[in-house]
């Protein structure tokens, strides 16, 4: 093959370096998904401890030229087909530089959930996502050409450990392949290239392979994406996203002929893309799409109660190397994104780009509270308190922005991250200082501020209507979720190991919620107050059945269950859930379409319990199964127990105070 | 007792009337603003057309480039940190002129490549400074509006101001009622709307306000004789000079009026105060504006008539002579006065003759007699089409058609004569000014359709006067004839009409009574000292006379009612027409085109598509050549350097581009290459039927190009005097670059190459481009962008081309042998 490979040269001598630990990978199953511009490598590793010592860390190795494009890396303990993978949190991963490792390798250390004793084995799912790893070749194509790309990797799993048995499959977007490296045991079947199985390979085995294939998927790369999130306590969150998009594929040469494109757009423009789809929150409103020189008229917006989809077309079809920039903006109601906890409010909103196909080279998120004072100026006591919780490392700093009629400006939290992929589109939290502090500390300073803020305060503050339990983060990194972070805070204050969930009050600027709102059909219900260890689709289904007929669980946001019910009044506001002999009150909040409603009664009980057990890496949550748990305000005893020990039973009641309960036993699966 | 009560009643009525008129004025302002928002509602908040894009860009530069702004911003922060000095800060910011100096010295290298353009010295800064300071005020108050938003809404804001200025002006002339009526008419006159819809960020938007306000202050000074107003007048004139080249209209009209007053024996010290400070201060201030500079005194555009010399100089001298005469007359005995007159006149004549001789020599020495092309075409409407094709090629410099009068001022055209008549009843200084204003502006609007804009306010003022007078007469006659009211009407007669309107109207009525005499008087234009004495007399007698006269002026009841209904109907027509014009005719931003077809609305956003493509996908220093119409838009929207733009200051440069467009491909390539051009942009409407495309403008390119480069001859492009692009067209035409770039591969769309604008099949269908390559064509083919092939390619391509083209021609000819005979260029 005539093309240039950036081959990664390895010296054989390296292979003789001493192995770090006595771990063996007894089985490695790798699947490389190349169907988009992003390369997703999922490896299922079966790790076995062949040595004597207890091992708590596992090393993952990537060559440097891959590691620099590494956008996302998770390792999740694999619990077999039957159980839900999502119920377990992923393991903490760090970059390490151990001695005696070959050069040009980047090593990541995975902290195993518990030490691996001699002879024990563990299965891990490792997902590594790479951007910009599909090199267009040839680098310049004309309008009519198809786009060919090269992907390079190793046929053998590169690992510091000995690998007993392994296989690799590469999934391609189409059956058309220019060439691929053939070594022994190579098969090409129906858009999939299979390598292996190979057995008993020493550590650091490396056998370069290259796949040269057709990929006409949109290579949309956002060179820069700036997301501005502005919170207005009048009831709106305004999101503005500035895109600077380029086509990251093979560059277009020889001009662009409209007549060719119009006559046969799929042939004479195969590598181009016309449109992008942004998935916005279901309640998004006032959506706009424009650029520096005005509105762009080529867009479509549609939505249902689940999502709003904005299909945008840039002003011109995007060919290789072409760039464009535009801005989309929308507003969402505040109560879906702002919550209150312990006198602090926090914003809980997605981090990444709402477009599934877009790779973002540089993402800047600016969260801003429109009504927040610059605490620095207004409160010299130093009660400034803006903190951010993001489930992955980001650059972070603060700015001051002057908005409408400001005198001192508003603080802006800026988060920056490079190499962002759709997997990063998870929720993050910004904790803000509520107005209460300011007022109690220095009322007169506030008088200098806008009068409307005062009015707003007196109107709104007594009416904390929607009450929600924290419990949203379920599948994010441990130690960085809201719950974990809060737990750490309380521990620091109280000096206690034991912490508990607290009541979180959703922020609702007006009390004008429709009360007698009767409508049949499908409902989204949000679940608050369910302890994290009970998060699984099994529980969700049980809860859904208790409220109506279970239809579906939102896999992204586990707090949402779609149920079928005749009337919202049939949905209980509170459910009693028993998990492992403990009772939990679970708040149920229903929502239909874009219009939210909520039940009016307040939460009365809570009781999950977490203790922090120091592990070698960060904090891990583990469930306290013993007697520290005290269920507040409630006598346990009316719940049946399953023989699994992790039983879940759900009690349905209008209000826990009335003790009018009806039991729904779970059907064993 | 009765009179006392009556007095109380009238004061109350005054108050109520004032409140009411303030409220009405507010509503008029809201109306003026909101009727111009159709463009934002129907389309979007975007800058319109061509020139506004330049102004927008200048405003951006004005705001962005001044580095001091950043310092000020931080200063703002520091100041406000301590909760004080916000006002001081604002003052400071306005006193700091650094931003303005940057602006004066700004040399724009993005346009007129390779010449560039000194923006500060060639632009009227009024509009950009206005919008810039508006933006600064808003931003210093931390209202973060974008520059674009401020620019878009500047015009509607200033049309509300213009409506209020009209009220003030008309009130000075004929009282509150007429003022309100005129303001309401002006708020929605289509002619003004056409230049001031939201997004139409052009000089006129601000200048019309300045024009009317200057006239108001002049009249106010004339009526009061206050030096304060005279100073304000000079400042307002300065603002007008900053804003628009139309200031010459003011500086010619006012001396003409002064002269008229002197000739008709209406000289007074008030006239002197109204005129002299304006000329001295105004001219001094005007020469501070770089674009005007010494033009303010040097050019003949400031002449008002041929009979006199530099008019304001002349009138200035005359008015001083007259003032002196009156003064001397006051202090000397009649006999001495006569002697003095003869002395002064003889000396004055000598001086005048000398000055005339000098100035005439100066003027005659310049080739155009000191007149610029546009002004000359004002005096001789055929001048531009004869000598300056570049002025004639602009549609807004053409004389208007009759329908455009109806379109632009609608029913006002019928009301204006009535208004003129009303102004003669009686003829005051103020009303004579209005009459003079309308007469001159009618003439100018007849020469150049663009100047309809100057005519519209005059039409509104006079129509307002006419309507107000008519309503006055009719309502009064109804009141006097209604049974039951008549008993009260004795006491209530004065109350019905309020304040000075009463007096004014009474005068009018009184004068109407003796109108035959008056008209005669006006027609003869006799020195009307008598006239004014009469006025005063009437004023004194008014209260006594009113009752009797009012009874005499009463019209039949039915006639009055019907007339009022008809007038209301007329007004309703006007409103309907204006709203229609604002919504349908004048709101389109012209960069976005829409069309309705059976399957709904189609949007043609091709211009912005092309500009966005240029902005993002070409190098920042690439030069783009296009016809000058698209220059401003390319610099503002695509941010690329252009060769020529809408500021047509250099005819030769434009002619070069015109020549390139008219030349065959190779010659054009050489011209463009010598200008460092990388991309050529043409606008082509043949696919969708967009009629103002480059092929339709092509003859102007030929004419302008031919005006400088004689080898381009217009007849070469015409077949028997007809401009055509079908198979009958000349070979020069079919081989010109413009033809080739427009129709490149056009035939492949439908197989025939049917041009929907020219409604014909194109002449030359299959051809290849040798020196240019197509790099982008928009969705509806409205903008096509070609890249100049580089030199190396050209040579290689040429050798190859000679073979391939011969091959192509042979194959083509073998294919279409029959056609070959028809087509003469083979």
Automatic annotation (TrEMBL), chain A:
Signal peptide region: 1-21
Pfam families: Ribophorin_I (PF04597)
Keywords: Endoplasmic reticulum, Membrane, Signal, Transmembrane, Transmembrane helix
Subcellular compartments: Endoplasmic reticulum membrane
Entry's Gene Ontology BP terms: protein N-linked glycosylation via asparagine
Principal subcellular localization: endoplasmic reticulum
Membrane-related topology note: Single-pass type I membrane protein
Domain of life of the source: Eukaryota
InterPro entries: Ribophorin_I
One Gene Ontology CC term in the entry: oligosaccharyltransferase complex
Pathway this chain belongs to: Protein modification; protein glycosylation
Alphabetical list of PANTHER family matching this protein: DOLICHYL-DIPHOSPHOOLIGOSACCHARIDE--PROTEIN GLYCOSYLTRANSFERASE SUBUNIT 1, RIBOPHORIN I
Family: Belongs to the OST1 family.
Known role: Subunit of the oligosaccharyl transferase (OST) complex that catalyzes the initial transfer of a defined glycan (Glc(3)Man(9)GlcNAc(2) in eukaryotes) from the lipid carrier dolichol-pyrophosphate to an asparagine residue within an Asn-X-Ser/Thr consensus motif in nascent polypeptide chains, the first step in protein N-glycosylation. N-glycosylation occurs cotranslationally and the complex associates with the Sec61 complex at the channel-forming translocon complex that mediates protein translocation across the endoplasmic reticulum (ER). All subunits are required for a maximal enzyme activity.
Subunit-level organization: Component of the oligosaccharyltransferase (OST) complex.
Protein name from the UniProt record: Dolichyl-diphosphooligosaccharide--protein glycosyltransferase subunit 1
Biological source species: Tetracentron sinense (Spur-leaf)
Automatic annotation (TrEMBL), chain B:
Pathway the protein acts in: Protein modification; protein glycosylation
Span of domain STT3/PglB/AglB core: 621-680
Alphabetical list of InterPro entries matching this protein: Oligo_trans_STT3, STT3-PglB_core, STT3_N
Transmembrane segments: 12-33, 53-72, 84-104, 116-138, 150-169, 175-193, 205-231, 237-260, 272-297, 303-328, 340-364, 405-425, 432-449, 552-576
An MF annotation (GO) of this entry: metal ion binding
Principal subcellular localization: endoplasmic reticulum
First-tier enzyme category under EC: transferase
Bias (Low complexity) ranges: 805-815
Pfam families: STT3, STT3-PglB_core
Compositionally biased residues, Basic residues: 794-804, 816-826
Localization annotation: Endoplasmic reticulum membrane
E.C. designation(s): 2.4.99.18
Region annotation (Disordered) ranges: 513-540, 794-826
Domain Oligosaccharyl transferase STT3 N-terminal, residue spans: 19-462
Catalysed reaction equations from the record: a di-trans,poly-cis-dolichyl diphosphooligosaccharide + L-asparaginyl-[protein] = N(4)-(oligosaccharide-(1->4)-N-acetyl-beta-D-glucosaminyl-(1->4)-N-acetyl-beta-D-glucosaminyl)-L-asparaginyl-[protein] + a di-trans,poly-cis-dolichyl diphosphate + H(+)
Cofactors demanded by this protein: Mg(2+); Mn(2+)
Membrane-topology descriptor: Multi-pass membrane protein
PANTHER family: DOLICHYL-DIPHOSPHOOLIGOSACCHARIDE--PROTEIN GLYCOSYLTRANSFERASE SUBUNIT, DOLICHYL-DIPHOSPHOOLIGOSACCHARIDE--PROTEIN GLYCOSYLTRANSFERASE SUBUNIT STT3A
Subunit structure: Component of the oligosaccharyltransferase (OST) complex.
Name listed for the protein in its UniProt record: dolichyl-diphosphooligosaccharide--protein glycotransferase
Organism: Tetracentron sinense
Native organism taxonomy: Eukaryota, Viridiplantae, Streptophyta, Embryophyta, Tracheophyta
């Amino acid at each position: 093959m005539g093309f240039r490979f950036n081959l990664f040269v390895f010296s054989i001598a390296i292979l003789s370096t001493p192995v770090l630990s006595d771990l063996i990978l007894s089985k490695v199953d790798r699947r490389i998904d190349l169907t988009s511009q992003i390369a997703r490598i999922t490896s299922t590793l079966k790790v076995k401890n062949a040595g004597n010592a207890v091992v708590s860390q596992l090393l993952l190795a990537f060559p440097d030229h891959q590691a620099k494009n590494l956008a996302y890396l998770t390792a999740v303990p694999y619990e077999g087909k039957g159980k839900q993978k999502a119920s377990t949190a992923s393991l903490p991963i760090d970059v390490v530089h151990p001695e005696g490792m070959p050069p040009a390798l980047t090593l990541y250390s995975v902290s195993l959930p518990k030490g691996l004793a001699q002879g024990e084995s563990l299965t891990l799912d490792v997902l590594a996502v790479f951007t910009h790893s599909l090199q267009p070749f040839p680098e310049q194509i004309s309008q009519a050409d198809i786009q060919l790309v090269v992907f390079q990797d190793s046929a053998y799993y590169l690992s510091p450990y000995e690998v007993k048995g392994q296989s690799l499959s590469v999934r391609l977007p189409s059956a058309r392949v220019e060439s691929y490296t053939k070594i022994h045991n190579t098969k090409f079947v129906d858009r999939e290239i299979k390598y292996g199985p190979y057995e008993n390979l020493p550590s650091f085995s490396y056998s370069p392979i290259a796949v040269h294939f057709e990929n006409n998927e949109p290579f949309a790369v956002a060179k820069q994406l700036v997301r501005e999130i502005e919170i207005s306590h009048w009831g709106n969150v305004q999101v503005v996203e500035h895109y600077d998009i380029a086509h990251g594929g093979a560059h277009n040469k020889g001009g662009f002929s409209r007549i060719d494109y119009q006559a046969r757009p799929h042939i004479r423009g195969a590598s181009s893309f016309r449109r992008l789809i942004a998935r916005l929150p279901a309640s998004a409103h006032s959506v706009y799409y424009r650029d520096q020189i005005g509105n762009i008229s080529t867009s479509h917006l549609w939505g249902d109660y689940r999502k709003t989809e904005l299909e945008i077309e840039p002003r011109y079809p995007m060919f290789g190397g072409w760039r464009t920039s535009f801005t989309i903006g929308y507003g969402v109601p505040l109560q879906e994104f702002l919550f209150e906890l312990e006198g602090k409010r926090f914003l809980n909103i997605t981090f990444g780009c709402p477009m599934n196909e877009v790779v973002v080279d540089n993402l800047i998120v600016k969260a801003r509270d429109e009504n927040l004072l610059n605490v620095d100026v207004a409160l010299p006591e130093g009660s400034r308190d803006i903190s951010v919780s993001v489930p992955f490392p980001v650059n972070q700093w603060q700015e001051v922005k002057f908005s409408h009629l400001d005198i001192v400006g508003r603080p802006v939290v800026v988060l920056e991250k490079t190499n962002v992929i759709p997997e990063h589109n998870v929720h993050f939290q910004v904790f803000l200082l509520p107005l209460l502090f300011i007022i109690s500390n220095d009322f007169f300073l506030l008088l200098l501020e806008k009068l409307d803020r005062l009015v707003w305060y007196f109107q709104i503050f007594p009416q904390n209507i929607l009450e929600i339990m924290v419990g949203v983060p379920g599948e994010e990194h441990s130690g960085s979720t809201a719950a974990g972070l809060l737990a750490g805070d309380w521990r620091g204050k109280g000096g206690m190991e034991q912490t508990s969930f607290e009541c979180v009050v959703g922020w609702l600027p007006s009390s004008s919620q429709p009360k007698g709102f009767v409508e049949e059909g499908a409902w989204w219900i949000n679940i608050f107050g369910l302890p994290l260890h009970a998060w699984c689709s099994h529980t969700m289904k049980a809860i859904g059945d208790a409220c109506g007929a279970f239809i579906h669980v939102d896999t992204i946001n586990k707090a949402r269950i779609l149920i079928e019910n005749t009337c919202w009044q049939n949905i209980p506001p509170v459910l009693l859930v028993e998990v492992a002999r403990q009772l939990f009150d679970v708040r149920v909040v229903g929502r239909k379409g874009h219009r939210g409603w909520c039940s009016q009664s307040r939460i009365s009980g809570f009781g999950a319990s977490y203790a922090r057990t120091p592990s070698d890496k960060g904090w891990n949550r583990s469930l306290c199964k013993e007697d520290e748990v005290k269920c507040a305000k409630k006598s346990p005893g009316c719940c049946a127990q399953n023989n699994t020990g992790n039983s879940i039973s759900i009690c349905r009641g209008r209000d826990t105070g009335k003790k009018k309960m009806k039991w729904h036993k779970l059907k064993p699966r | 007792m009765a009179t006392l009560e009556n007095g109380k009643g009238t004061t109350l009525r005054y108050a109520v009337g004032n409140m009411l008129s303030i409220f009405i004025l507010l509503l008029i302002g809201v109306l003026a603003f909101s009727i111009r928002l159709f463009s934002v509602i129907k389309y979007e908040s975007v800058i319109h057309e061509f020139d506004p894009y330049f102004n927008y860009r200048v405003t951006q530069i004005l705001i962005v480039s001044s580095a001091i702004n950043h310092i000020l911003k931080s200063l703002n922060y520091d100041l406000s940190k301590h909760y004080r000095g916000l006002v001081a800060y604002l003052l400071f910011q306005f006193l700091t002129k650094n931003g303005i100096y940057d602006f004066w010295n700004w040399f724009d290298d993005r346009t007129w490549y390779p010449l560039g353009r000194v923006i500060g010295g060639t632009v009227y800064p009024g509009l950009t400074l206005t919008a810039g300071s508006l933006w600064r005020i808003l931003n210093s108050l931390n209202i973060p509006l974008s520059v674009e938003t401020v620019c878009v809404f500047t015009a509607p804001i200033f049309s509300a101001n213009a409506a209020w200025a009209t009220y003030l002006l008309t009130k000075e002339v004929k009282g509150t009622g007429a003022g309100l009526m005129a303001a309401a008419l002006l708020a929605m006159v289509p002619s003004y709307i056409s230049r001031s819809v939201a997004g139409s960020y052009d000089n006129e938007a601000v200048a019309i306000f300045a024009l009317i306000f200057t006239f108001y202050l002049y009249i106010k000074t004339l009526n009061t004789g206050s030096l304060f107003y005279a100073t304000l007048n000079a400042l307002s004139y300065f603002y007008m000079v900053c804003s628009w080249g139309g200031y010459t209209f003011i500086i010619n009209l006012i001396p003409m009026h002064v002269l008229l007053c002197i000739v008709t024996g209406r000289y007074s010290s008030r006239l002197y105060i109204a005129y002299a400070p304006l000329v001295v201060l105004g001219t001094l201030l005007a020469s501070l504006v770089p674009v005007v500079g010494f033009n303010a005194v040097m050019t003949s555009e400031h002449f008002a008539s041929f009979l006199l010399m530099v008019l304001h100089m002349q009138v200035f001298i005359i008015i001083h002579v007259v003032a002196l005469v009156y003064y001397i007359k006051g202090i000397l005995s009649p006999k001495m006065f006569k002697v003095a007159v003869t002395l002064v006149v003889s000396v004055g004549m000598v001086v005048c003759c000398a000055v005339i001789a000098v100035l005439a020599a100066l003027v005659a020495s310049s080739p155009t007699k000191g007149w610029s092309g546009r002004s000359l075409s004002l005096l001789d409407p055929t001048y531009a089409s004869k000598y300056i094709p570049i002025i004639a090629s602009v549609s807004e410099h053409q004389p208007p058609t009759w329908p455009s009068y109806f379109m632009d001022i609608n029913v006002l055209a019928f009301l204006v004569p009535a208004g003129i008549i009303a102004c003669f009843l009686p003829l005051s200084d103020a009303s004579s000014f209005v009459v003079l204003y309308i007469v001159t502006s009618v003439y100018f609007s007849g020469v150049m359709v663009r100047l309809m804009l100057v005519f519209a306010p005059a039409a509104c003022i006079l129509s307002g006067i006419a309507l107000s007078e008519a309503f006055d007469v009719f309502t009064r006659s109804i009141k006097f004839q209604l049974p039951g009211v008549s008993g009260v009407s004795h006491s209530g007669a004065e109350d019905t009409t309020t304040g000075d309107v009463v007096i004014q109207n009474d005068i009018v009525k009184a004068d109407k009574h003796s109108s035959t005499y008056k008209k005669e008087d006006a027609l003869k234009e006799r020195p009307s000292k008598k006239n004014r004495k009469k006025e005063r007399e009437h004023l004194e007698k008014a209260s006594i006379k009113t009752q009797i006269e009012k009874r005499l002026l009463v019209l039949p009841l039915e006639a009055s009612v019907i007339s009022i209904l008809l007038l209301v109907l007329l007004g309703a027509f006007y409103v309907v027409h204006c709203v229609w014009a604002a919504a349908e005719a004048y709101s389109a931003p012209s960069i976005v085109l829409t069309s309705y077809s059976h399957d709904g609305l189609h949007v043609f956003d091709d211009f912005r598509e092309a500009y966005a493509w240029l902005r993002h996908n070409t190098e920042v220093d690439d030069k783009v050549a296009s016809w000058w119409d698209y220059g401003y838009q390319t610099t503002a929207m695509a941010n690329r350097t252009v060769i020529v733009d809408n500021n047509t200051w250099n005819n030769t440069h434009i002619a070069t581009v015109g020549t390139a467009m008219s030349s065959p491909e190779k010659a054009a390539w050489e011209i463009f290459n010598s200008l460092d051009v990388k991309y050529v942009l043409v606008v082509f409407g043949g696919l969708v039927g967009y009629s103002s495309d480059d092929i339709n403008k092509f003859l102007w390119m030929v004419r302008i190009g031919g005006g400088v480069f004689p080898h381009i001859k217009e007849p070469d492009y015409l077949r028997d005097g007809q401009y055509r692009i079908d198979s009958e067209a000349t070979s020069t035409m079919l081989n010109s670059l413009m033809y080739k770039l427009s129709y490149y591969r056009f035939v492949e769309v439908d197989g025939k190459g049917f041009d929907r604008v020219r409604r014909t099949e194109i002449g030359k269908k299959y051809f290849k481009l040798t020196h240019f390559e197509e790099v982008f064509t928009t969705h509806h083919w409205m903008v096509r962008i070609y890249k100049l092939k580089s030199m190396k390619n050209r040579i290689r391509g040429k050798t190859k081309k000679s073979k391939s083209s011969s091959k192509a021609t042979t194959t083509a000819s073998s294919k279409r042998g029959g056609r070959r005979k028809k087509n003469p260029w083979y």
